[in-house]
Hints:
This protein is α+β, with helices and mostly antiparallel strands. The chain has five helices and eight strands. A five-stranded mixed barrel has the order 1-2-3-6-5. α3 runs parallel beside α4.
Amino acid sequence: MRHKVGALLLAGLCGLVQAQTLQGTVTRISDGDTLWIATSPTTKPIKLRLQGIDAPEICQPWGKQAKEALQARLLRQTVRADVKARDDYARRVVRLSYQGEDVGAWLVSQGHAWSYRGRWNAGLYAKEQASAKQRKLGLWLAAGADQGIEPRVWRKQRGPCKP
């Protein structure tokens, strides 16, 4: 009996993390790493968070530019989203591609976001970040004392942006 319960539990968990691929049109950009897609003209748009990156907060230096760059590239475009997880805000965390290009890699390589680092690794897009930093692109060119402060540190020091 115990083995049957364990097998059922494992099967259920596998279903929760089963890969899902979405294709849709970008309807809205919230900031440099969050967007909305409609998978059909009649469905409610779905909120997505890009995996492996952390874009500046809107009130942070380069935050508006990061949002505008993503908006200029993707608004009203068709994208493919490979769902990897859900975050603390119930957003789908996705690897997003546009015309075959990894959008997260593009954002980081252009200096619009950081490669999201873990405790023990430099992140999915560490090479792209090093290149953007060396070439002084985007946020790496931004002036001011707040240059280079990762968004998670920014939020911890200052709290969330106020509308």
